[in-house]
Amino acid sequence: MRLFFLKDFLDLVFPRNCPLCGKSLFDFEPCLCTVCQGTLPRANFHLRAFDNELTSKLRGLMPVNRAMAFIRFTKKGKSQKLLHLLKYKNKPEIGEEMGRLYGLTLVQEGGYSGEWDLIVAVPLHPLKQKRRGYNQSEKFAKGLSISLNIRSKEVLERRKFTETQTKKSRLQRLENVDEVFDLKDSENINGLRILLVDDVITTGATLCACANVLLANGAKLVDLATIAAGGQ
Ligand SMILES: [Zn+2]
């Protein structure tokens, strides 16, 4: 009973509000209010995971298997506000919540179970991560990991491109990427089916670069999932 009093007291002093609409949250609402959750602009790519506008966009850049996004990115819409809060307003809990909700959606609507051995997030550059305090894509991976019951691990690293690495890939040349991705030295991903995740997919260049590193290091397959898809 005492705990309840303490919680009521804390809610009174530090009220929790929905970051999208500002309404105060009920105990059963971990991050977004029920109305905002229900009106997210869902993309439903998981219903046609092997053949949708994302897979078409990526064909030729990597061996595409499944490509999915939870919501559609729309300028001035809910998705833009969510991503802005997640990336620039110190709200890492939004990333985890998006992962949790998308994981539930994949299980309940897509019938997913046991498709992957490991969830891997696209790494941020270490300096950027230090400034932000967290990697938003890792938070998305963590939420997915909880609701899909699959482990997530940061097996990739990102570092500045140096001139000694003379063989730029086609993608890096296309995008003028001055950073490269690598598998961390201590990691072994041989034979694993990997779900690679990021916050947003626009051109797909970053995701493809990471996917190709995972495949070159022995991953059996790489599927892609992002919080949002669309221009930004
Ligand atoms: Zn709300």
Number of helices: 9
Number of strands: 6
Q: Give the name of the CATH architecture.
A: 3-Layer(aba) Sandwich
Round the mean pLDDT to the nearest integer and report it: 89
Short description:
By secondary structure, the protein is α/β, with parallel strands linked by helices. It has 9 helices and 6 strands; from the N terminus they run H-H-H-E-H-H-E-H-H-E-H-E-E-H-E.
Summarize this structure as a short list of keywords or feature phrases.
4-stranded parallel sheet, two-stranded antiparallel sheet, 232 residues, binds zinc ion, 9 helices, Rossmann fold, alpha/beta
Can you put this structure into words, describing what you see?
The protein has 232 residues and is an alpha/beta fold. It has a single domain, classed as 3-Layer(aba) Sandwich (Rossmann fold). Helix content is 38%, strand content 16%. It is built from 9 helices and 6 strands; from the N terminus they run αααβααβααβαββαβ. Strands 1-6-5-2 form a 4-stranded parallel beta sheet, with helices on both faces. It has a two-stranded antiparallel ribbon with strand order 3-4. The longest helix is centred in the middle third of the chain and has 17 residues. It is globular and about 55 Å long. It binds zinc ion. The site of zinc ion has 8 residues, from α2. Zinc ion binds next to α2.
